[in-house]
């Protein structure tokens, strides 16, 4: 009898139902109803044949004789406690065994499910390919669809690159604007300093011009007198020449 699903059949040495069940389901633990022993098809040996006695700590074999011995000694309290502990130990071991087998069964059925999905997908692909080969219009549409998908993938890649480049150029533009702002501040400050220097220079030149003008305004009196004297001498000279000419005419 299978310890996992409870399937009942002949042993491996008769019609081989148990081993066939193991190959199909990977349920490796089978209970022999006659001997009450468990056969492990994966390990190819018996399991749970040895248990540890709490009375002396030795390992003893558990078989149908032990079970019958347990029935015959049920009236003894000490033996009942010892065998009860042994049965509890066996029960715990069986639970652990059952848990591990359930986990292996989970993996087994998951693998079957995955294989079924792969087979379904493969059959679907073959059916589509067959339909396309039999119908030229479908084949043409499929080619257009494949081409459209490829173009979409290409455009998506270009779009992603453009978005990345956009972020890069935006960062560069921000840096350039920041540098230009700093340069404008430096230029404005320099222009302000130059304007102050120019104002100082203009004030200095105006002061120099005013001083020179005041110095030259005091000198024209002597030059004017010289001009008057020169004019008078010219007039007297002119008169002398006129008198000499008149005298010559009279002679």
UniProtKB/TrEMBL annotation:
Residues 203-251 are annotated as: Disordered. InterPro entries: Znf_RING/FYVE/PHD, Znf_UBP. One of its GO terms (molecular function) is zinc ion binding. The keyword Metal-binding applies. Residues 1-66 form the UBP-type domain. GO terms for biological process: protein ubiquitination; Ras protein signal transduction. One of its GO terms (cellular component) is cytoplasm. This is UBP-type domain-containing protein. Gene3D superfamilies: Zinc/RING finger domain, C3HC4 (zinc finger) (3.30.40.10). Residues 240-251 have a biased composition (Basic residues). The keyword Zinc-finger applies. Residues 206-226 have a biased composition (Polar residues). It comes from the Eukaryota.
